[in-house]
Structures are given as C-alpha cells and as structure tokens.
What we know:
By secondary structure, the chain is α/β, with parallel strands linked by helices. The chain contains 17 helices and 18 strands.
Amino acid sequence: MELSLALERLTHPRILVVGDVMLDRYIWGDVSRVSQEAPILILNADQQEDRLGGAANVANMLSALEAQVTIAGIMGHDSDGEILRGLLRTSDIDAQALLNATDRRTTVKQRFVGRASGKHSGQVLRVDYESRHTLPTQLEEQFQSLVCGLVPQYDAVLISDYGKGVCSVNVIEAIIRRGRQTDIPVLVDPARNGDYKKYSGSTLLKPNRYEAAHASRLPLNHVSQAAKVVQHLQKTLQIDNLVITMDREGMIIADQNGSLHHLPSHMRDVYDITGAGDMAFTLLGLGLASGLSLPLAAGLANVAAGWEVQHDGVAVISRHELAAEIQRNTQPKKIQSLMMLNREVKRLKSLGKKIVFTNGCFDLLHVGHVTYLQEAARMGDALIVAVNSDKSVRKLKGPTRPVIQEADRAAMLAALACVNHVLIFEEDTPCSILQTLQPDVLVKGGTYRPDEVVGHEIVTGYGGQVCLTSVVNGVSTTQILESLHRAA
C-alpha cells in the first residue's frame, strides 16, 4: 500500500540525463545448425530492431514514466547517430544538448539473438562499435559549459557513465559542483571501473555489487558485508546517499543520516538482466525529483528492476504497468486478477512454458479435486485454476451453496503445490477467460467427453488441447454434504 501511494505522488519532473548515449541493435533469427566452415552456430536472421541504449535508455525509461526529459551527450556524425536522434524524437526526448563529434563514432551495441526451434531465444553474440578516448579539450569545454548552464532549469540531473569518455573528471566535477550551488540533486550511475573520486559530493551514487566492491576494494559477496562497503564509500567519496543494487539479493540503501536498509528482491524467473540497472536508476531519479524519500524511491526502483529482468532485452515500463507490478508483489502471489494473470501468461509463453487451465467451484475441497489438479499440473509447466465466485456458485448450485466462501476456496487452492495461479471469476462460464488467456491445455475432471467441456471450441479453435483426468469414484462435494446431513 505504501508503494502504491508513493506511485501516486510521482509528479512530472524536468530531468536532465547526462552521459554516454548508445544505440542498441537487436538482430533475431533461428539457430538450427552448425557451420561447416568452423565450429560456430549459424543465425538465420529474420528481424532487426534499433533501441535507445546507455544514457539514452535512461532518458527513454523516464519519458515512458511521464517525466519531461532532456538528454545531454556526444555522438558521432554518422548514420547511426541519425537513427538515434530519430528514436529520441519518437520518445519525445529533448536532444538540444546532444552534440555531434567528428572524431568519434556513435556507440552501437549489436546483439545477435538466436531462437531454437522457433522459441527459447537467447543472445548468441554481442558486437560493440565504439570510441572510448577522451574528448578533445575544446569539445569537452563546450559540452561542460552547455550542461552546467542547463542544470538550474531541472528538478534533477542523472549522470549515466558507461566509461566511453564523455563523463570525464572535469565534466562530472563541474556538474556536481553546479548542482550543489543551485540545490539540484545530482544522481550518478557509475562506470564499471575507474577512479570513483570524480563522483565525490554527488547526491546519490548507485553502483551495482561488482562496482561497489571495486570502488571500496572490499568484498561484497553477501548482504552481510554491505555495512563496511557503505561506510567506506560514504566516508571517502563524501556521498550523501548510496544505493547498491545486489541482483538476486535486492538493494542496499544508505542515507546521509547513517541509516542502512536492505530491500530484498521478490522471487521471479530471470529472463534477461539487460537494463535492470538503468531501470533502478530511472526510478530513483524520478522518485527523488518528485520529492519522495529515498526509501520510497528505492522501493519503486526495486519493483521496477524486478519487472525488467522478466523481459527480453531492454523494456520500458509505464506508470500503469508499475502499479500492476506493485499490486502483484503485495497481494497473495498466486491469487491474481485477470489483467495481471494475462500479463503473466504472456511472459511465461515467451519463455516457452506450457500453460494448463481448469475451472470449477471447488466447494469443500476433497481428495478427488486434489488428485485431478495434480494430474492436470503434470500436463504442462504452469497450472491456472479459475474458481467460481460465490454469486456464480449460487446460480449454478442453488441458494445453499457455496459452503465455503470464495476467498477461502481460492486460498485453499493456492496452498496446493501443484497450483501456480488462482483466479476468481463472476461469469457462469470461463469462456471469456479462455479467449483472453488462451491456455495451451484445457483440463476437466469427471465423466465428460472432450466435446462436452465448456469452452472446448475456443481452445481447439486456436490450436490448444482439451484433456480429461481420471475420476476418483465415490467422492464428490454433494456426497460429502449428504453424508454430513445424515450424520446430523
């Protein structure tokens, strides 16, 4: 609830993003054979897409979250630079402070992504085209003057340093100094290696686990080692606030008052870690620029970074999607709304998972139900159980049913290890749910024929299967209720 309220408090701040702008190029294709020329895979390319990368990716993420964004950086005077400018225009990002350089090329990270049997995609190779040398003195001074002149016009400055030469010691120190003079927060996502002294005095530093260990020369293999690392960095770099992203262990947050917090991550399938650090940095910047406290901004950043790792490549999140992710992380994990479940099903299918669906009243959960649900779960990778609401059960079974209320029935189903997701629905039939989710397998227990299962025509229409489970004789909810009535 606290994070939901924090999300509502986000404004539409003006944010200046400074750093190494890049173009992320993805080339997809099928990989089905090995070359006869060398022991290498052959990628049969069939799709290409260009996306904003590096500091431009942070700007893009901020724009998707409804901030007013200006990007400041250096790029080459080349065709890739023109593509980058076009993508910035499409994302409504102000590029007034993006300068062209004749002595360097636009940074491009070209990723080759292979699919096996048309699915299960993964990166095969990444090829980088870049210039890493420092800027010529005249260009550095021009860029520094331009950026420092812009700082007072913004609610926050985010420096995204990828170590490509744009974020020099002179430029970074001048921006931080200007930020302090004008009381504008300056947040830094540091380069992987190098001297971190140039970030001294920034409002917030956001290294990852590896970067924090490198900068402090102290081990950081576990959260328990974070206190010493934080103390060292805050003392030597005179940093007000520090957020260390700890991948599977979440985040470490330290503020200027000396308090230290650990935000654990939510357990989830990790599909692609690309962009998770940028996403965390984006939400930290947006949160602080909107006046949120560091713990609340970090909480939003933690949720958004978790969302990012579940998506292929770099993806942007909207406020609406972030709200849904917050809800997903704060309610009982297995019991979900149709909207949230639809997004989860799409994610699972993108990972090549087989979705199994069944539905029923499940009033007085008994061994027959459990046996059939266990059998259904073995037919795929994730079992969804749609349970009729109390109102729906009364229409189907009469005014004396259900015996157990819908929330309790859903909770008992969610407690079963074989059940992955539970959905409560109001309709008489699950047909609209089947049309939305399009599960791979529709399962029903009992003495039905496949063509008698409600919704069979929907599932078979898009190529799914309808399967029946075996029956446990002599066990049913009606029989149990009749037995209890006789015993009374």
